[in-house]
Amino acid sequence: MSRAQQTSYRRQRGSGRPAEGRNLPFYQRRREQILYLVVGGWNTLFGYGVWALMEYLLHDYFHYLVILVLSWPFSVLNAYVCYRVFVFRSAGSVWRELPRFSLVYLATLCAGLLALPVLLRTLPFNIYIIQAGYTAVVVVLTYVSHKFFTFGGAGGGPSYLPAKDATDDGGYRGPL
User: Fold this and answer.
1) Which of 9, 35, 87, 115 has the greatest number of C-beta atoms within 10 Å?
2) Could you tell me if residue 85 is inside a domain?
3) Residue 119 resides in a domain
């Protein structure tokens, strides 16, 4: 397509900007957000499953807040590996990212430790429903933290390896 044809095509579409981004399928334009939700869903199920299993097995021996703390490292390690590999495709240092990632989730753990007792006293739901709701909220709130803090580069931008082109399959290209 000649330059004149490209310009004419762009003008017909109502914009002087290149039309490439609009012609991409939705998944390719919103790859990171979609994968974050999918992986976040998996991490939510995994973390809730680990916590629920530990609550079921250990509730006679430990307070529910102790069980929450004991299940936390399993959930965080699973989430870190999944977000690093599948969502952000990070090539950054694990030694730099993992502490940042853990700090984000430490904040959510502390908030959960403070909120869970209050929510149990004030809401008419059992511990399983309350924890499931809190966990779902955490998925949404941590996206920005991970994008710009955990996996963000020194300049504040993401430190992932960008896709080669619009047809890239999103495969992982960095060291774990």
Assistant:
1) 87
2) yes
3) yes
Q: How far apart are CA 110 and CA 112, in angstroms?
A: 5
Rounded CA-CA distance 150/167 in Å is 27
Indicate if the pLDDT at residue 87 is higher than 50. Answer: yes
- Four-residue CA torsion sign, 72, 133, 52, 176: negative
Residue 10 resides in a domain: no
Selected residue with higher pLDDT from 83 and 168? 83
Q: How far apart are the C-alpha atoms of 22 and 16, rounded to whole Å?
A: 13
- Please report the pLDDT score of residue 176 as a whole number: 45
Of 36, 68, 49, 14, which is closest to residue 142 (Cα–Cα)?
A: 36
Residue 156, domain member (yes or no): no
Per this entry, what is the length of the chain? 176
Please say whether the beta carbons of 91 and 151 come within 8 A. Answer: no
121-159 pLDDT, tens digit per residue, is 999 999 889 988 887 787 778 888 888 888 875 444 444
Q: 77 is in which domain, residue-wise?
A: 28-150
Number of domains forming the structure of the chain: 1
Q: Which residue has the tokens 């869970």?
A: 116
CA dihedral of 50, 52, 53, 59, whole degrees rounded to 10:
130
